[in-house]
Amino acid sequence: xxxxxxxAAPAMALVALCxxxxxHAAAVGVSPGAGRQADADYYRTRAVVLEDRVMAEVARTxxxxxxxxxxxxxxxxxxxxxxxxxELTTAFDTNxxxxxxxxxxxxxxxxxxxxxxxxxxxxxxxQLNRPAAAxxxxxxAVGLLKSISASGDGLGFxxxxxxxxxxxxxxxxxxAGYQVESQSLEEKGQRMFEVVEAKKPDxxxxxxxxxxxxxxxxxxxxxxxxxxxTAP
Length: 232
Known about the structure:
Elements: H1 9-17, H2 36-50, H3 55-59, H4 63-73, H5 78-93, H6 97-110, H7 115-127, H8 131-149, E1 161-162, H9 166-175, E2 179-188, E3 191-199, E4 206-212, H10 214-223
Parallel strand pairs: 1-4
Antiparallel strand pairs: 2-3, 3-4
Helix pairs in contact: 2-4, 5-6, 6-7, 7-8
């Protein structure tokens, strides 16, 4: 159910923006424990392939598996990630295209599913007159966004968008011009959800959307020892 004053149209615009005109519910309804290692291996293999920046490989990539595999096989360096994101923001704000390319290169070496890195790298490469490389990174970013939007319409628990990193929530909303106002974690039917309130920069259009973070939440518990490694 939508919040007062929040209609379905903004969420449908998000879906349309990512190229999914007919959303369907729960396309990624897999068990949290199913195929973790297989998808981790898929991420590592695909990441190497995509490093060659061959456009044809974008269409061959199963982006849901790619994102899920990063959750289980990519590791994480939160402090370094924050530092690189700050560097990227500074480079983007000062129109330093060479610095954007350098920083996003380091970011993608760690996480090939980073939507922001692909998108901003594409913009910078176009400014540096490297259109083929720019098109490649934009195509990867769009593929990643589509793989999120295709998992539902985001309007409720039953049709929530499935994400495997919190930053995917921000990037999907940012792609349609929304800013996150608040987030809350809710449990429903043995699954975990983030309910996000977002708005347009002028504040006149607001939106409530739902993200399924079941696997992300479970993996976080595993990493801090709150859940056995073999548990789903």
